[in-house]
Specification:
single chain; 646 residues; alpha/beta; 21-stranded mixed sheet; three-stranded parallel sheet; 29 strands; globular
């Protein structure tokens, strides 16, 4: 277009909104200097959302309000860090200069009663009457909660988000909170957040929520940071069927300390029949596994979860099947095989995590996380052919223990026939008991026999922290669908990979080894690694190691079909041809890093050793070398990119 002035205003707004999201400040400034029309539209777009992270930004923004007419363009202001302390003193100026402000928030900050008193006085003088979102109060300050309630009620015709708290316990604020008593007067409210000390107080609110047809989201949090949400508070409350269902609620979010009980499941299924999103995410995972605070929480979840009947768990799983996105975590299901057997096609993605707990005096049974989403997260394992449609993922977490059957075996029997992707975190077989035990043999390699036998359509397999010595080819079926195999922090005997090669498809598109080692035989040296898979072709083979030998060079031998190639790659990716004599000599030298790859055929090789050596190698009549970073940044490697570049 020869004349930029001719761009329709609505099109220019869309362009500038994209620029506002992705571009740097210098580019935005340039947009405002194109011409008068662009300047006017740019200011409306760029000043629409204001985020202030530092005192300097804060002061510059206030100065711009004094010396320009940009204030009416400001619709949203978010104030971070310790800046909210200054907000109270210039609140009047902000509301005067920004008459169209609809959102004033301080993410992660709780404001005092004096701020809300100031805001209330401004509202009484007709300032800030368009506000839809306001900051939250100090959770343990009765005065702050009370004045916040006055502000919320004054904005009842515009406010879209409200927070309630039942502090103090002796005389719950709910009983005197006009915001709660007259909740039906809030005609625009979409989101209600509850900060609760007593479980039963939730029903004081829920009994009034049916009067808010505009409401779509409820978030429930534990107001006590130092104590878990007590299920005993729920034992003497009314039966769920005394409350009216809330069909307009589409999103429900529950805090990490809220323990799942049979009564909670009953209420949830009765009160919220039309959920499209359910977030129930206790703060318990690998990173917190041995912290006493979370261990206690885990034991509490186990105590109440195991009391829930199989029939109720089955009802709950039927309830969540239509939900489009969310997660429900730390489910202790006593007869989990019986329950999951009722839904043999529900999960096509399975995670198995065996964890070593340092606090040996504490042991829990297996528990489960359920994930359901209409957009697979790129860092999570998923079917390589996933089309973005609704998917369900089941994750099993379990302490290590010696047993006749590991918990995941029954899950593979149920979901194996339709399983597309499998993610396993194991440990060395010695952690599972004596060499004669079933668990030891499974961890030592027999688990692959079961996977290959029970999962005929599996195309993606990821394995972490295993040490594998034995796989019996006579006990396993060959699979023809595996396309993506990823080993991470694992070790193998030389014979294991060769045996595995006999059971894989003739071609595997992606074979990835991240920080893996060969399990040492008595004569093995530290820096000699071998990938011996003579019956398999690779579309791409990736090998990463974090340690480079003293010589700062890698000696590489690649054998495919009937040819062998030898290279010496030195620091800075200096690649030179080598020889069999030089390679064999490097194998016997513990100061030299040596890698031997034997396969049927290979199209592309990616190697990274520490930070000094990293390259790609494309195989043809004459192999060619290239940069690894552009290749690894491709979407199919999103799951490994963090570990690869670390």
């Amino acid at each position: 277009m020869s004349n930029w002035n001719q761009i329709p205003t609505e099109v220019l707004v869309k362009i500038l909104e994209l620029a506002d999201h992705y571009s740097r400040e210098q580019f935005k400034l340039g947009c405002m200097l194109v011409n008068k029309h662009w300047s006017m539209v740019s200011r409306k777009v760029f000043y629409k959302r204001v985020e202030l992270f530092s005192r300097k930004q804060f002061d510059n923004f206030m100065e711009s309000l004094r010396n320009s007419s940009n204030g009416p363009s400001v619709r949203e202001i978010s104030v971070y860090s310790n800046l909210p302390a200054h907000l109270e003193f210039i609140l009047s100026m902000i509301l005067d200069a920004c008459p169209n402000l609809v959102s004033l928030t301080c993410p992660g900050q709780e404001l005092s009663s004096s701020f809300f008193g100031k805001l209330l006085s401004e509202i009484c003088t007709r300032n800030g009457l368009k506000l839809r979102n306001i900051p939250v109060f100090e959770a343990a300050n009765e005065e702050s909660i009370r004045v916040y309630g006055y502000v919320a009620y004054a904005l009842r015709s515009t406010l879209e988000e409200i927070v309630f708290c039942d502090w103090p316990l002796e005389n719950p604020a709910f009983d005197r909170d006009e915001t709660v008593i007259r909740l039906e007067e809030f005609t625009k409210v979409r989101h209600i957040e509850l900060w609760l000390h007593k479980h039963g107080n939730i029903f004081y609110i829920l009994d009034r929520i049916h009067k808010c047809p505009s409401l779509s989201t409820i978030e429930i949090k534990d107001a006590d940071d130092d104590s878990a949400f007590d299920p005993n508070n729920a034992l003497n409350i009314a039966q769920p069927f005394n409350l009216q269902p809330l069909p307009n609620i589409s999103q429900l979010k529950l805090d990490e300390n809220i323990v799942i009980t049979d009564r909670l499941l009953q209420y949830m299924m009765h009160l919220f029949p039309n959920l499209s999103q359910l977030q129930f995410t206790p703060l318990i995972d690998d990173d917190y596994y041995d912290i006493p605070e979370y261990t206690d929480t885990l034991m509490r979840f186990q105590m109440y979860g195991l009391e829930i009947s199989s029939e109720l768990w089955i009802q709950f799983l039927k309830y969540i099947i239509p939900i489009k996105s969310g997660r429900v975590c730390v489910l202790f299901i006593k007869n989990y095989a019986e329950v999951f057997a009722k839904f043999p096609t529900l999960f096509q993605y399975l995670e198995i995590h065996y964890l070593i707990r340092l606090m040996e005096e504490v042991r829990t049974g297996p528990y489960f996380n359920l994930f359901y989403t209409d957009m697979t997260e790129p860092h999570e394992i998923h079917d390589r052919k996933h089309d973005g449609s609704l998917s369900h993922r089941l994750a099993l977490y379990c302490d290590l223990f010696e047993t006749d059957e590991l918990p995941h075996e029954s899950l593979l029997s149920i979901y194996g026939p339709t399983l597309k992707a499998l993610n396993i975190t194991m440990n060395a077989a010695r952690e599972y008991g004596t060499p004669e035990s079933h668990a030891y043999k499974m961890a030592d390699g027999n688990m692959f026999n079961q996977i290959l036998e029970l999962c005929p359509v599996l195309n993606t397999l990821s394995v972490k922290k295993g040490e594998f010595n034995h796989l019996d080819p006579t006990l396993a079926k060959s699979t023809q669908n595996l396309e993506y195999i990823h080993f991470h922090n694992s070790g193998f005997s030389e014979a294991f990979l060769c045996e595995l090669s006999t059971l894989l498809p003739q071609r595997v598109e992606f074979m990835i080894f991240m920080t893996c080692v060969n399990l040492p035989a008595p004569t093995s040296l530290n820096y000699f690694s071998i990938i011996d898979m003579p019956y398999t072709s690779f579309g791409c083979l990736i090998w990463k190691d974090d340690i480079l030998a003293d010589e700062d060079a890698l000696y590489l031998k690649i054998t495919e079909k009937r040819r062998s190639l030898y290279y010496r790659i030195s620091n800075g990716n200096q690649i030179n041809p080598s020889s069999s004599v030089e390679f064999e000599g490097s194998k016997m030298n513990e100061k030299k890093a040596t890698l031997y790859i034997r396969c049927l055929e290979i199209n592309k090789l990616v190697i990274k050793v520490a930070e000094e050596i990293h390259f790609t190698m494309d195989f043809a009549d004459i192999p060619t070398f290239g940069e690894d970073e552009p290749y690894i940044l491709r979407p199919e490697f999103s799951k490994i990119q963090g570990d690869y570049f670390d």
